[in-house]
Amino acid sequence: MQQLVLRVLGQRVDERPAARGVTARPELLDGQVVARRDVLRIEREPEIWYRNLPTFSAAAGVLITDERDRLLLVKPNYRDHWAFPGGMIEAGEPPHVAAARELTEEIGLKAEPGGLLVVDWAPPMGHRPSAIMYYLFDGGSVHSEINFEADPEEIERAGFFPLDECVTLLPGHTATRATAAMAARASGRTAHLPNM
Q1: Beta pairing, strands 57-65 & 132-141
Q2: Contact 73, 84 (CB under 8 A)
Q3: What average pLDDT does the segment 116-142 reach?
Q4: Which domains does the chain have, with CATH numbers?
């Protein structure tokens, strides 16, 4: 009979015979594969439990329109496609704060994001090893002749586009956000887009 030895933070926690079938749903904890029942017991230790929870990335953006309901998009110089102003949320940063920070950093606009229009989730894909949550906030409207102070190290251009043109400029999942955000703004109800 095999012995199951669980080590957490370098300390031996448990040693006993492993019952047949208990490793049907093994978890990886501190480099050791352990039975689910042992993980459940360790979950009572908050520091260990939190350290071993799954992680994901998070990003936030802002929907801003002009007087003709055209959407503001930015063309990052490190991507082949357009995007909403926004970016990754930093550790400990609330999503709406990240959206405002990114808007200022990318094109020099200062705005207090309003209500949450869209939240979506996407699985790991391509070079992104973890799932991502995305928050799109209402940034209100500005006049189309506003001067942008685009950060040349990050943004090639910024401009306003009608929704139907945005759908062709944005990648598929982001185009879905654009349509959902405009509908959410009109209805006053946040759209949830689980991208599975």
Answers
A1: parallel
A2: yes
A3: 92
A4: 3-51 (no CATH), 57-194 (3.90.79.10)
pTM beyond 0.85: the answer is no
Beta-carbon neighbour count of residue 151 at 10 Å?
15
Contact present, 96 and 184 (Cβ < 8 Å): no
**pLDDT tens per residue, range 64-112:** 999 999 999 999 999 899 999 999 999 999 999 999 999 999 999 998 9
Distance CA 126, CA 166 (A): 23
